[in-house]
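User: Sequence recovery, please. Input:
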Protein backbone atom coordinates (compact mmCIF):
# COMPACT_ATOMS: atom_id res chain seq x y z
CA UNK A 1 0.00 0.00 0.00
CA UNK A 2 1.31 3.45 -0.95
CA UNK A 3 1.97 5.55 2.15
CA UNK A 4 3.00 8.68 0.21
CA UNK A 5 0.98 11.68 1.32
CA UNK A 6 -0.73 13.87 -1.30
CA UNK A 7 1.49 16.89 -0.59
CA UNK A 8 4.59 14.70 -1.03
CA UNK A 9 3.37 13.68 -4.50
CA UNK A 10 2.84 17.33 -5.49
CA UNK A 11 6.25 18.28 -4.06
CA UNK A 12 7.94 15.54 -6.10
CA UNK A 13 5.98 16.25 -9.29
CA UNK A 14 6.70 19.99 -9.36
CA UNK A 15 10.01 19.84 -7.45
CA UNK A 16 8.86 22.24 -4.75
CA UNK A 17 9.12 22.09 -0.96
CA UNK A 18 6.61 20.10 1.05
CA UNK A 19 5.38 23.35 2.61
CA UNK A 20 4.74 24.83 -0.84
CA UNK A 21 2.89 21.68 -1.86
CA UNK A 22 0.67 21.88 1.25
CA UNK A 23 -0.01 25.57 0.51
CA UNK A 24 -0.92 24.69 -3.09
CA UNK A 25 -3.35 21.92 -2.08
CA UNK A 26 -5.00 24.05 0.61
CA UNK A 27 -5.48 26.94 -1.81
CA UNK A 28 -7.01 24.70 -4.45
CA UNK A 29 -9.52 23.71 -1.75
CA UNK A 30 -10.08 27.36 -0.77
CA UNK A 31 -10.95 28.17 -4.39
CA UNK A 32 -14.26 26.38 -3.84
CA UNK A 33 -17.08 28.01 -1.87
CA UNK A 34 -18.52 25.31 0.39
CA UNK A 35 -17.66 21.77 -0.63
CA UNK A 36 -13.90 21.18 -0.73
CA UNK A 37 -12.26 18.35 -2.75
CA UNK A 38 -9.89 16.03 -0.91
CA UNK A 39 -6.16 16.46 -1.35
CA UNK A 40 -6.06 12.99 -2.93
CA UNK A 41 -8.63 13.96 -5.56
CA UNK A 42 -6.66 17.11 -6.39
CA UNK A 43 -3.43 15.10 -6.76
CA UNK A 44 -5.12 12.55 -9.03
CA UNK A 45 -6.55 15.35 -11.18
CA UNK A 46 -3.19 17.16 -11.44
CA UNK A 47 -1.42 13.91 -12.37
CA UNK A 48 -3.97 13.22 -15.14
CA UNK A 49 -3.55 16.74 -16.53
CA UNK A 50 0.22 16.28 -16.90
CA UNK A 51 1.12 19.87 -16.03
CA UNK A 52 4.75 20.64 -16.85
CA UNK A 53 4.83 23.68 -14.56
CA UNK A 54 3.14 24.61 -11.31
CA UNK A 55 -0.31 25.97 -12.19
CA UNK A 56 -2.06 28.45 -9.95
CA UNK A 57 -4.38 26.85 -7.40
CA UNK A 58 -7.36 28.68 -8.90
CA UNK A 59 -6.51 27.40 -12.39
CA UNK A 60 -6.54 23.83 -11.08
CA UNK A 61 -9.84 24.41 -9.25
CA UNK A 62 -11.35 25.96 -12.37
CA UNK A 63 -10.15 23.05 -14.54
CA UNK A 64 -11.58 20.57 -12.02
CA UNK A 65 -14.90 22.38 -12.15
CA UNK A 66 -15.00 22.62 -15.96
CA UNK A 67 -14.03 18.96 -16.48
CA UNK A 68 -16.65 17.71 -14.03
CA UNK A 69 -14.09 16.29 -11.58
CA UNK A 70 -15.50 18.58 -8.85
CA UNK A 71 -18.66 20.42 -9.86
CA UNK A 72 -19.25 22.59 -6.80
CA UNK A 73 -19.30 26.40 -6.88
CA UNK A 74 -16.05 28.32 -7.13
CA UNK A 75 -15.14 31.48 -5.24
CA UNK A 76 -14.20 34.49 -7.36
CA UNK A 77 -10.73 34.37 -8.85
CA UNK A 78 -7.98 36.08 -6.90
CA UNK A 79 -7.02 39.56 -8.08
CA UNK A 80 -4.35 39.64 -10.76
CA UNK A 81 -0.95 40.83 -9.65
CA UNK A 82 0.09 43.84 -11.67
CA UNK A 83 3.60 45.22 -11.60
CA UNK A 84 3.89 48.94 -11.21
CA UNK A 85 5.29 50.82 -14.15
CA UNK A 86 8.86 52.00 -13.73
CA UNK A 87 8.71 55.75 -13.37
CA UNK A 88 12.44 56.36 -13.10
CA UNK A 89 13.73 54.97 -16.36
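Assistant: Recovered sequence (89 residues):
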Amino acid sequence: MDKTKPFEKIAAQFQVSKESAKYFLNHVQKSFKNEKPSHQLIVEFVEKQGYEFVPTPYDVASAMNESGAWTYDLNSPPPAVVDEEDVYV
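The helical segments are 6-14, 18-30, 39-49, 57-67.
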